[in-house]
Amino acid sequence: MNRFAEMSRLRHIGCTCCLATQVSSRENSCLWHISACKYLTSTMLDAALSSYGAQVVLATSSDENHPPENIIDGKTETFWISTGMFPQEFIIRFPDNMKIFTVSIHSYNIKRLRIEKGTSDDAEKFEAVADTEFEHTENSLQANDISVNVLNTTHLRFLILSGYGPFVSVHKVSVQS
Fold it and tell me: What DSSP letter does each residue of 70-116 carry, written as one string?
């Protein structure tokens, strides 16, 4: 099912504002509705899934067994791993301009992370939206939800500024829009 069909399906699961306003099923209306509807918080769209059209357009390191695309496959069992040294970064591009409320990241060994938004198609200019330090976990994934409340972004850049060891891994990024 493509992402617009999924959005239309979500629109019809009993949302009272959909029923009251007869929201159009056109793609733009669906995008607005999914990002604006306060009644769909339990079924919010994860805009960072490759199945919805998100792409990793840049990563500073790559391992053929653990490629950057694993970040957006929706699974915590697969991952991208850095090749050492800091900073490391990756950029996720969305198929449409997005309004983003929360970024969730499942990772290992990240100490300090900065998230920046980009609004241009060429992903050249970015503005910081979050800078956070993660707690160290010995034998489990770090799971962090970061509130960003970003309007109109086409790209998110993740800068891993430091780690608890020479290598870090990112298992899953979710973007609630």
Answer: GGGSS-SSS-EE--SSS-EEEEEEEEEEEEEEEEEEEEESEEEEEEE
Count of CB atoms situated within 10 Å of the CB of 14: 8
The model's pLDDT over 113-165, given as tens digits with 9 standing for 90+, comes to 999 999 887 778 999 999 999 999 988 999 999 999 898 899 999 999 999 99
Do 143 and 106 contact (CB within 8 A), yes or no? yes
Res. 27: pLDDT tops 70? no
Contacts of 150 (CB under 8 A, 6+ apart): 98, 99, 100, 117, 129
Rg (CA), the chain: 17
Q: What single DSSP character describes residue 7?
A: H
Report the C-alpha gap between 51 and 36 in whole angstroms: 21
Alpha-carbon distance of 105 to 83, in angstroms, equals 19
> Residues 6 or more apart from 108 whose CB is under 8 A from it?
79, 137, 141, 142, 168, 169, 171
Q: What is d(CA 145, CA 105) in angstroms, rounded to the nearest whole number?
A: 7
Considering the entire predicted model, what is its pTM?
Answer: 0.75
Lowest mean pLDDT, pick from 28-32, 86-90, 107-111: 28-32
